[in-house]
C2H2-type domain-containing protein (Gimesia aquarii), 184 residues
Amino acid sequence: MNSKYTILKKIMKKIHSMQTVPTNWIYLLVLTCITTACSQELEETSSLKPHTDHEHHTDHEHHRHIIQLPESSGVELEFLSSGKRNQIEIHVINAKTHKPYSIDSEKIQATFHTGDQDIPVIFVASPLEEDPDSQSSRFVLPFEELPQQLKLLNDFQVTLTLELDGKSVTGTLDHKNDHQHHHD
């Protein structure tokens, strides 16, 4: 039996046995992230770069997307859902080395576009151990702070804005959960 199928089966049993609504939403969001486990092709990107150079991720993290920023910025954003830490994370990475890139910022502003509404959220700095003082390469939004209307979204666009060297830089991720997955 495929391990993905086994994991999904366990999660589904857990969801069905849950009694509290807020926890159900969290598990459903995690389930959505696990089942999609896609490598999204992004605008202006012909292929995703290998993801082996930095070690701040675990096998409990799913649904990784690279968000291209203007080439002159020298960085990219990595958008992922961490079931282990119960949060959505944005990692700022060097566009060439794919290693964490610390910036002097306390937040990354995000706006989720859902077709009929724009929902602003803030990802707050959560520095990695190796990040210099008062800088961060990781920004987080805990699942419990995720607005209710975003909890079960499959299709969305998110625009991320951050400050780099005193300039406002913006990147966009278009996510469509239209992937077919085959389980052996």
Observations:
- Helices lie at 3-17, 21-36.
- Strands lie at 61-68, 75-82, 87-94, 107-113, 118-125, 138-142, 156-164, 167-175.
- The chain has two helices and eight strands.
- Residues 3-175 form a domain with the Immunoglobulin-like fold (CATH 2.60.40).
